[in-house]
Amino acid sequence: MADETWIFEYVRQFEREEYLLPNTWIVVRIDGRGFHKYVSFTNLCKNPIRLAPLWLQARISNHYGFVKPNDIRALDLMNAAAQHVLHVLHDIMISYGHSDEYSFVFHKSCTLFERRSAKIASTVVSTFTAAYIHLWPRYFAEPAPTGTFLARHSNGGGSTNVIAIEGNPQSQETSREKADLAISHLPTFDARCISYPSNHNLKDYLSWRQADCHINNLYNTTFWALVLKGGMSNTEAEEFLKGTLSSDKNEILWSRYGINYNNEKEIFKKGSVVLREYKMLEPTEAARRIDIDVASDLPKEDELSKTKREKIRKARQKADVVVRHIDIIKDDFWQQRPWLLTGQPGSSV
Ligand SMILES: [Mg+2]
Questions:
Q1: Which residues are annotated binding-site positions for Mg(2+)?
Q2: Binding-site sequence positions
Q3: Gap from CA of 283 to ligand 1 centroid (Å)
Q4: DSSP alpha helix (H) spans, 25-140
């Protein structure tokens, strides 16, 4: 039988590969499946066939009692899983995440899997998910952070979920019951690859994600203040916030609940950047003169000698992979960390 495998081998011809354009930045964005999406009764009525399954099943965040609007345990777990991905895949220069999404940026010189899109996306998302599941007990064995309590709250779908509200230590037992992962609600992620031809496009991509973090967080902070502190239903809060600007939301938070949005934690407002840490350049004139749109690149990997390649790999392996909650939209961020764009490891801290 073994000699006759050639009879079947023609099926290989059905396989199709997408090779990502050479010399472009590869971004893999992963996104949690069914973590937060909230379906209001109004939307359900508009599109019952598509939305009924979502409406009936508790979201991951509700099932495990994530603190609203932000659960620091869930965010720290996302960051730890992202750090693991950077430890395993040396071609990733930087990653950025907030909420249930993460973007991983491979250097344009990367030749991993001959730049086959499906291989790269599936490796990133499975490495991330494996770490997320493995590390889950470390972050969720503890009850919701101090100063929060769990309360019964209708998710608008007829069922009641346990969520944590700031300020009142109560019934943390329920939190422990929910700590173990259930086969019916295993966290999973999807992934896609996008290639960006210029440094400028890549910076704009990451700026877009960080701006999105800010917009979403301001919305969620206000939404959950109206629900949890103001006693509105989810639908009422959604209606109330329709058409409001950022300044209106800031005003609602301050005048109604005495919350100064600027004092919210940086991790909530800015999201998280995961990168290898080297000695940063001082933000002096010399650094500012670096034109980050044309920052020189490493030659393509196949043009590098084997020794040089190995040296770069070892330097990346040795560097600390750190998590920061800082502004990545301003040029300063890139000018102080030239290694992110050049791919040349910097000097150790
Ligand atoms: Mg998402």
A1: 31-32, 100
A2: 31-32, 99-100
A3: 34
A4: 41-46, 48-56, 60-63, 72-88, 117-140
pLDDT score recorded for residue 177: 54
Q: What distance in Å separates the CA atoms of residue 150 and residue 166, rounded to the nearest whole number? A: 9
| HSE-up of residue 182 (Cα within 13 Å, Cβ side) | 14
Domains of the chain and CATH, by start: 24-342 (3.30.70.3000)
DSSP state of 226: I
Low-confidence ranges of the chain (pLDDT < 50): 147-173
Cα-based distances in Å from 95 to 313, 330, 340: 18, 16, 10
**In angstroms, what is the span from residue 311 Cα to ligand 1's centroid?**
37
Taking the centre of ligand 1 as the mean of its atom positions, its distance from the CA of residue 100, in whole angstroms, is 5
Amino acid at site 68: K
216 CA from centroid of ligand 1 (Å): 11
Annotated binding site for GTP: 99-100
Gyration radius from the chain CA atoms: 23
Q: What is the 10 CA–ligand 1 centroid distance (Å)?
A: 40
User: Do 38 and 59 meet the contact criterion of CB atoms below 8 Å apart?
Assistant: yes
pLDDT digits (tens, 9 = 90+) for 89-117: 999 999 999 999 999 999 999 999 999 99
Determine the distance separating the centroid of ligand 1 and the alpha carbon of 313, expressed in angstroms.
32
Q: What pLDDT score does 214 carry? A: 97
Q: How far is the CA of 215 from the centre of ligand 1 (A)?
A: 13
Tokens of 209: 């994600």
